[in-house]
Specification:
alpha/beta; 10 helices; binds S-adenosylmethionine; Rossmann fold; single chain
């Protein structure tokens, strides 16, 4: 990929990266593997309906929040660290006449500014792997979820030790470096007393998103040839990094999973 200087500063963290216009160009509107197909699957598993009040934790541009409000008629709170992304969510809500259904909250998933037992469902897509303290976030998810309500998480799974060649900026911003093993995701929820934990593999989603990034990178080169667009120099080397990521996927090192779990009612909390 060719680069021209526009914003040469490295994104310091995933939040920086996920609020750049170039990110939307590379990934599309949904910043998680599997896109709205997996969001729909999660929503159905969580039994989201018109009566539901849903918390979308680390909501990015709010693509899933908008989808849930539009397709399931529910109320959604989109929570993210990035004010920039939430501004986009508000603008899109207005554009789609969904402002009465969607509210936004700038907050850290590790300290959710809502009372206990507030939400009928929680979704958290491709974000646990970006949290500094995932256990704290799991604890907060459990706290704000109503008893008998369900949480749905989808995330990148690290099945093998990260190869040295992938210990770089791209792994950080593409959510690979912070990814956990599938058992570790289960452990996070079990430690908070979530029950009925159900996990399924969706490895196709990670392969699909890498293909998409590759295709968009190629397109970017074409645009650059015509001098229509400039991209940050820190994207230099993405071609080689994507090749390494593909190799790691091919040997089963990297995958994607979808999981749901239920917060038990206080009466059943002591029974297994
Ligand atoms: C990979 S994107 C996923 C966005 C969205 N869930 C989606 O699927 O389109 C990760 C998001 O997590 C947000 N994020 C990272 N750490 C966070 C935290 N501790 N609390 C809240 N949001 C966080 C980032 O700002 C970014 O929007």
């Amino acid at each position: 990929m060719k680069t021209q200087s526009m914003n040469n500063a490295n994104p310091n963290c995933c939040m920086d990266f996920y609020q750049l216009p170039i990110t939307q160009f590379l990934l599309g509107d949904s910043f998680h593997p599997g896109g709205l197909k997996l969001t729909k699957q999660l929503a159905q598993q969580l039994l989201i309906s018109r009566e539901s009040r849903v918390l979308d934790i680390a909501s990015g541009r709010g693509t899933s929040s908008l989808y849930l409000a539009e397709q399931f008629g529910c109320e959604v709170v989109a929570l993210d660290l990035s004010e920039k992304n939430l501004t986009i969510t508000r603008a899109l809500s207005k554009e789609k006449n969904l402002s009465s259904k969607i509210t936004t909250t700038v907050a850290n998933a590790e300290k959710i500014p809502f009372n206990d037992n507030t939400f009928d469902a929680i979704i958290c897509e491709c974000a646990v792997c970006t949290f500094e303290a995932p256990q704290l976030a799991a604890n907060e998810m459990f706290r704000v979820l109503k008893p008998n309500a369900k949480i749905g998480i989808s995330d990148v799974v690290l099945n093998q030790k990260l190869p040295r060649k992938l210990d770089n900026l791209f792994s950080t911003i593409f959510c690979i470096k912070g990814a956990l093993s599938s058992q570790h995701y289960v452990d996070l929820l079990q430690a908070e007393n979530f029950k009925r934990i159900n996990q399924s593999q969706a490895d196709w989603a990670i392969a699909e998103i890498v293909e998409k990034i590759k295709a968009q990178s190629k397109l970017l080169d074409t645009v650059l040839d015509s001098d229509l667009l400039s991209v940050p120099s820190w994207l230099n080397g993405s071609e080689a990094a994507l090749k390494e990521i593909e190799k790691f996927i091919a040997v089963g090192g990297l995958g994607y999973m979808v999981m749901t779990a239920k917060k038990p009612s206080p009466l059943s909390a002591t029974t297994p």
